[in-house]
Design brief:
alpha/beta, Chemotaxis Receptor Methyltransferase Cher, domain 1, 3-stranded antiparallel β-sheet, 10 helices
Amino acid sequence: MIETTITNQEFGLFQRLIYKIAGISLSDAKKVLLVGRLTRRLSQYELASFGDYYRMLASGNYPEEVQTMVDLLTTNETYFFREPKHFDFLRNEVIAKRTSPATFRVWSAASSSGEEAYSIAMTLAEALPNKPWEIVGSDISTKVLAKAVSGHYSLARTEGIPPGHMQKYCLKGIRSHAGTFLIRPELRQKTSFFQINLMHPVEADIGEFDVIFLRNVMIYFDPETKAKVVHNLLPRLKAGGYLIIGHSETLNGITDRVVSVHPTIYRKP
């Protein structure tokens, strides 16, 4: 019989494991969430307890299952044009004052299922209609990245997308795809996605960026992890480039390698 409760000791093991892998600090209040999301994995492997499941993950013999566990515990809420003032800043301050003919590049560093990356894509398509641009999106979760690559969403997710953008950059599904929409191919072709763990130096060949979005992910990190993540990202930000974080986040006391230009917006000298 599978035990669907978890002891404090077992929960502590998972807290340390997800912190080690993803830098996420799971509070004690997340115990119910963890049980709800991982119980099916115990059933999948016919394991009797969460302790057995932890020992399986820690053995090093099941890397795909470790990734599944990470996917289940790191899926975060996101939506199109979240915190819209950041997109206004990107359009009116960064792009409007830009003079370089080089390809304008933006990294959505915690892109989840892609809504942020495609919101950026729509913004760039409008602001740079005849100039080159490209976007990289990344996340630690392979599950949400698969969704992002598809660019396929429920019509219930359209709140926040300006009506003109919806008509211009999205294709409404018909017949078997009714009730959904697809980001147009011309935007998806300029948007690439990579699995990147921000806890480690970035090894993927993604180049440098004019702007990096790192929004609504550091709220899950302690100060030490925040500093590590920002340290890993900044080598990829061009001099004069902008780092944008979430409205409930700050870099005060985290790094002195960027300067604040607006609340939640920083510039690399």
